[in-house]
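Protocol step 6 of 9: fold each sequence in the batch and record its C-alpha cells directly after the sequence line. For illustration, a two-sequence batch is reproduced in full.

Sequence one:
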Amino acid sequence: MPDRLIPTRASLLARIKNLEDHESWQDFFDTYWKLIHGVCLKRGLTPTEAQDVVQETMCAVMKHMPNFKYDRTVGTFKAWLLTMARWRMNDQFRKRGPVKNAPGGARVDNSEVLNNLPDETTDDFETLWKQEWEQALFDAAVVKTRRKVDPQKFQIFDLLVKQHLSPVQVAEEFHMSVTNVYLVKHRVAEEIKSEVERLKQYIV
C-alpha cells in the first residue's frame, strides 16, 4: 500500500495544487512551518511576528500553487519559498514603524533597522536557511513517526531523549527490561532517520 504520508516531491507539489486536498496541505504545513518560523526568530522578529510570517507565507503559497510550475533548472522549490518568506519578513519590520522612547528622546526610523539587517543574499543567510531546513526536516520526521508508531513506544523514546530519564527509570515506569527500553529507542530513532531521508527525496 502506498505511503500516503510521504508522497514523492512531484506528487506533493501536484497534490497541493488542489486547495481542497487538506491531507497534502497538512503534510506541507507540518514540513515547512518550523523552517520559516525559526528563520524569522533568528532574523530578529518576535514570536508573534514570526507566526504572522508563517501564515502570510502559507497563504501566498496557496494563492500561487494552482498555477505553479516546478522547474528544477530555474531554481529549487526551497529557494522560491525562501523568497516568499523573506518578503514577508521585511514587511513585518516595516510594520513596526518608528521606534519610540529611544534613548535621549530620539525617534529611530525603522528604515535604519531594515538597512542594518544582514544582506539576505550572503552566505550567512543561506547557511541559516540551510540549518533551519535541516531542523525542520527532523521535526517533521518526528511528527510523522509519532503518527505511525505505537504511542507507548514513542513515549518511551520521548522520555529518554527529551525528558532525559535514564533507561533504568523508564524500564521501571513501563515494567520492562532495560534491554527492551534500548531496543525501543533504537527502533524509533531509526524510523525518524528513515523519515528524514525520505523527506529529503521530495523536498529540494
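Sequence two, same batch, same settings:
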Amino acid sequence: MNIEVLKSKIHRVKITQAELHYVGSITIDEDLMDAANFIEGEKVQIVNVNNGERLETYVIRGERGSGMVCMNGPAARKVQVGDVVIIISYASMPIEDAKQFQPTIIFPDQNNRLIH
C-alpha cells in the first residue's frame, strides 16, 4: 500500500507578483526551489495564510536570488502581492518507506531569502 506524505514545504513566503494573463503556475526563485527540493513542473499545493485559499498548480523556475514568488494565470486572482503563502508538495510511497522518510522544510526570511 502507498500513502501520500509531505515531501517538501516552503513555509511562509510572500507573494511578490501576480500575473493574471499568463499560462499558469507559480514562479519560485531557484534558490528556494533547490533548498526545498522542488523541481520545475512539480505539482504543489498553495495555502494562502491571508485569506485561507488553497489551490494546486505546478512550479516554474524563477530568477536565482531574486526572492520571486509569482502566482500566474487564473490563480493570480486568489492572492495579492504581499500575501503570505505556504507551498507544499507530497510524495507517494510504500507505508514502510514513509515511516522513515524525512521531508524537506525551509523557513525563508521576510524577504523570501534563505536563512543560513
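Proceed to step 7 once all outputs are recorded. Observation for sequence two: The longest helix spans residues 30-36.
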